[in-house]
Amino acid sequence: MWTCPKCKRVFQRAGQQHSCATKPLSEHFKNKQEAFSLYKNLLKVIENKVGKFKVISIPCCIHLFGKYDFLAILPKKDGVIEIRIALNHAIKDKSIVNCVPLSSTCYKNCMNIKSSADINSKLIGWLKESYDLQR
Asked: Which one-letter DSSP state was computed for residue 118?
């Protein structure tokens, strides 16, 4: 593991290419109140059922970091939040809208959270798995 001396983000490889830029969290939710409500609900569930984390707000999205970066959140104008779960396998489920292999051992599993009902036990299981994954 390597910590960037400038932005203090943690990466798997020393000198990993990244941007140290940040973005105020509020900017992600400008004119997106419904998405913000879902985001707050999701964070509360993660804190209570998955584990402690740090919120890292960067220009492209919001990252949640436990021992590792385990979740990316992208608020949308239609009240939806897109989430991207980092796992060592593709999730085979109808709720996954896209799965992108990042390497032979890492997949970005993408889904949309449209309501609090989407924050269910199945999602919590995937988040726990990602949170606990040894990278």
From this structure: G
Within 8 A by CB and 6+ apart from 124, the residues are 45, 49, 50
Which amino acid belongs to residue 58? I
Q: How far is 130 from 135, CA to CA, in rounded Å? A: 10
> Residues 64-87: pLDDT tens digits?
988 888 999 999 999 999 999 999
| Burial label, 75 (beta-carbon count in 10 A; 0-12, 13-18, 19+) | buried
Q: Count of alpha carbons within 13 Å of 121, Cβ hemisphere only?
A: 0
CB atoms within 10 A of CB 46: 22
Q: List the domain boundaries for the chain.
A: 21-132
Give pTM, 2 decimals: 0.88
Fold of 21-132: Yope Regulator; Chain: A, (3.30.1460)
Bridge partners, 109 (sequence order): 85, 99
